[in-house]
Amino acid sequence: MMVLGAWHFAHVSRGASLWGGVLSGMGVGSVIGGLIGLRWRPTYALRAAQLTFVPFAALPAALAISLPYAACVCAAVLAGIGSALFGVLWETLLAREIPAGLRARIGAYDAFGSICLLPAGYALAGPMASLIGADGMLGISGAFVVLATITALLPRTIRNMRSS
Questions:
Q1: pLDDT of 54-78, one tens digit each?
Q2: Is 40 helix (H, G, I), strand (E, B) or coil?
Q3: Which stretch of 57-61, 77-81, 113-117, 137-141 has the lowest confidence by average pLDDT?
Q4: Are 8 and 63 in contact, with CB atoms under 8 Å apart?
Q5: CA gyration radius for the chain?
Q6: Which long-range contacts does 64-70 make (Cβ < 8 Å, 24+ apart)?
Q7: Mean pLDDT of 34-55
Q8: Taking the CB of residue 144, how many other CB atoms lie within 10 A of it?
Q9: Half-sphere exposure of 12 (CA within 13 A, CB side)
Q10: Predicted TM-score of the model (pTM)
Q11: Nearest CA to 147 among 70, 60, 44, 35?
């Protein structure tokens, strides 16, 4: 989304400033999500963590269908809220549920899956957008977020894991 979102605004007047405004909206949403995360104690934290990431799909979807700028900023705020809440709940779950001796290994796998593969995604975004169009790729990325969340919630042990 970072590559294609920037591309989305590259061909309009003041595009860089507009994209900066969208990203600022995500930052504002992240602060709001973090503040919510300070107080919220869901009974099913793993389910809640997965579901809080769904709003992240709002931003690529808004860009894909070329919603007005204000709607894109609002979608970015929602994406930031969801992303921050996911982070708070996920890190809390790791600290509470993973034995201390395994946290470093689990954290390494988590980082690899979450962060280390980003450059490959950035490198593939342009060629994929050339094949199917940037808006199509943004739409696919939004749909992928929702599909991945649903898939992660399929196992009953994930959906019904109670917070300790």
A1: 999 999 999 999 999 999 999 999 9
A2: coil
A3: 113-117
A4: yes
A5: 17
A6: 64/135, 64/136, 64/138, 64/139, 64/142, 65/135, 65/139, 66/135, 69/18, 69/21
A7: 93
A8: 12
A9: 13
A10: 0.89
A11: 60
Alpha carbon distance 112, 59 (integer Å):
24
Residues 5 and 19 sit within 8 Å (Cβ to Cβ) = yes
pLDDT at residue 50 in the model: 92
**Structure token pair of residue 50:** 């997965």
24-28 long-range contacts, CB within 8 A, separation 24+:
24/76, 25/72, 25/73, 25/74, 25/75, 25/76, 25/77, 25/80, 26/59, 26/76, 26/77, 26/79, 26/80, 26/83, 27/80, 28/77, 28/80
Sequence letter at residue 58: A
From the list 141, 145, 142, the residue with the least C-alpha distance to 122 is: 141
DSSP category for residue 98: S
